[in-house]
UniProtKB/TrEMBL annotation:
Domain Probable histone-arginine methyltransferase CARM1-like N-terminal PH: 11-110
Protein name: type I protein arginine methyltransferase
Gene3D superfamilies: Hnrnp arginine n-methyltransferase1, Vaccinia Virus protein VP39
Catalytic reaction annotation: L-arginyl-[protein] + 2 S-adenosyl-L-methionine = N(omega),N(omega)-dimethyl-L-arginyl-[protein] + 2 S-adenosyl-L-homocysteine + 2 H(+)
GO molecular function: histone H3R2 methyltransferase activity; protein heterodimerization activity; protein homodimerization activity; protein-arginine omega-N asymmetric methyltransferase activity; protein-arginine omega-N monomethyltransferase activity
């Protein structure tokens, strides 16, 4: 069969019984030829000197009968700049020639897809990639432009908690990397690829879609002892082809709230495409931690932003009709900052995402039930969230955490603030739901509901006493440029330690406690960036 296909592929010119242009007002069917060359497919009638040039990336072939087909293309006449969609009726002299032509077209397209028109490895270009189907082009353009700039890479590299933890997780687990093939997913500056090479990797494929790939090549070339074992590949992990499977995947796919920017999906796709069944992922799992909080200062700060719209005589204009909309708009922004863990008013719970097992589609929608027992009586202003990830090495298990009270990272923490706070008593149950739905701007819409049940005599006969809900866009947070403050405690509040985690999907005792790596930093603070993810 392979020999037969090879013969068909070598037969690059076909005589056609008839060719007619569907775009012609009075189409005439005349004999013609179809030929393949390095530039593509050419179809023309014998009496027509200007052939139809067909780009292999756009051709679609439909078989109407054993000897009759329609070829739909985006083409152009030789010597003309204008391009257009075009359909051509082609009829073969017999069924065998028709079958041969179709086989050659499929083989030809396959070769073009793998090697590209100039013979270089590239993405599948006959159709939109999986990434392009999910993500709005304007969002992707801004995203890759952002990560293609060195100043943003520097901001992440200067997060010494982040970079130091990655370095420790790799170097302390040399046995996992020595002599192994590694794929760095979203390599950015290439720093993780260099770490893997330092740990003795046999070869590292650094896959990076932005223009940062060129800087990565330059940085890696400047470290010649490591460069000979690192190959930078510019492209998306959804599209590129690699010459061999990987024993290790390493990546920094985490965004705000772990899932922002939707790079976790690319990490999972890379797992399915490149990782051997027994391979390891660094990191291997992530946890989103959640707890209700009280913060009167923050609530008033957000509410006061809408005071501008309460003016009844702004240059003679009454602005109050827009006050309600503006008020809700400010509360639709998740707050990104570092806060005092004493603001938490209940033990936290967590939602586990196992990167080694989860399906890509399961990241499109995440539904987390909430249940807490209030430790104090106070007003609940919303839900605080942070995350950690586990590097499950064979030698050392190491955690990278963004928890409040821990060394601050460039991710900080995130808080969803209710426009209508609820009041609870100590010991009262708080229930609710955190519903995260992915959208095509590389982020998520957040739906949060918190409710407090009745408290005191007769509570068992009563239902929900208070409920408050909000809708937030994770893509448009409020970056609150502040460090944790010492808040005055209410009379019925006692200082609380950082409350331990209660896992939803796995028991906390199944995982080692987080270890923190903090290296001396020449800068005492880490800047906030509007996009935060991989290096």
């Amino acid at each position: 069969m392979e020999d037969s296909l090879e013969k068909k592929w070598k037969q690059r010119e076909f005589t056609l019984a008839s060719v007619s242009d569907l775009s012609s007002v009075t189409p005439s069917a005349l004999p013609g030829t179809a030929s393949f060359d390095s530039d593509g497919l050419q179809i023309h009638q014998q009496s027509h000197q200007i052939p139809l040039n067909i780009d292999p990336r756009t051709v679609q072939l439909f078989r109407l009968s054993p000897v009759h087909s329609v070829c739909m293309v985006e083409g152009s006449d030789a010597g003309k700049k204008a391009s257009y969609a075009r359909g051509v009726n082609i009829q073969f002299r017999n069924e065998e020639e028709s079958e041969t032509f179709h086989c050659v077209v499929q083989q030809w397209k396959k070769e073009i897809n793998v090697q590209g028109p100039n013979g270089r490895n590239q993405s599948n270009i006959t159709s939109k990639s999986k990434f392009d189907e999910k993500i709005e082009s304007s969002s992707a353009k801004m995203y890759f432009h952002y990560y293609g700039q060195l100043l943003h890479q520097q901001n992440m590299l200067q997060d010494y908690v982040r970079t130091g933890t990655y370095h420790a997780a790799v170097i302390e687990n040399r046995s996992d990397f020595t002599g192994r093939v590694v794929v760095d997913v979203g390599a950015g500056s290439g720093i993780l690829s260099l770490f893997a090479a330092q740990a003795g990797a046999k070869h590292v494929y650094a896959v990076e879609a932005s223009e940062m790939a060129e800087y990565a090549r330059k940085l890696i070339a400047g470290n010649p002892m490591l460069a000979q074992r690192i190959t930078v590949i510019k492209g998306k992990v959804e599209d590129v082809e690699l010459p061999e499977k990987a024993d290790i995947l390493i990546s920094e796919p985490m965004g705000t709230l772990l899932i922002n920017e939707r790079m976790l999906e690319s990490y999972v796709i890379a797992r399915d495409r490149f990782l051997v069944p027994t391979g390891k992922m660094f990191p291997a799992l992530g946890r989103i931690h959640m707890a209700p909080f009280t913060d009167e200062y923050l609530f008033v700060e957000i509410a006061n932003k809408a005071l501008f719209w309460q003016q009844q005589n702004y240059y003679g204009v009454d602005l109050t009709p827009l006050h309600g909309t503006a008020f809700q708009g400010y509360f639709s922004q998740p707050v990104v900052d570092a806060f005092d863990p004493r603001l938490l008013i209940a033990p936290s719970i967590s939602h586990v995402i196992d990167f080694t097992k989860i399906k890509e589609e399961e990241l499109y929608e995440i539904d987390i039930p909430l249940r807490f027992i209030a430790s104090v009586g106070t007003r609940v202003h919303g839900l605080a969230c942070w995350f950690d990830v586990l590097f499950n090495g064979s030698t050392v298990q190491r955690w990278l955490t963004t928890a409040p009270g821990s060394p601050t990272t460039h991710w900080y923490q995130l808080r969803c603030v209710l426009s209508q706070p609820i009041y609870v008593m100590a010991g009262q149950e708080i229930t609710g739901r955190l519903h995260l739905i992915a959208h095509n701007a590389q982020s998520y819409t957040i739906y949060l509901t918190l409710s407090a049940k009745m408290w005191g005599p007769g509570a068992e006969q009563g239902g929900i006493l208070q409920t408050s809900s909000c809708k937030l866009d994770l893509k448009e947070p409020y970056y609150r440029m502040s460090q944790p403050q010492a808040y005055a405690l209410a009379q019925d509040q006692q200082p609380q330690p950082l409350i331990p985690t209660q896992d939803i999907h796995i028991q906390s005792q199944d995982l080692d406690e987080p270890e923190f790596v903090q290296q001396p930093s020449p800068n005492s603070c880490v800047q906030i960036d509007p996009l935060m993810q991989n290096i």
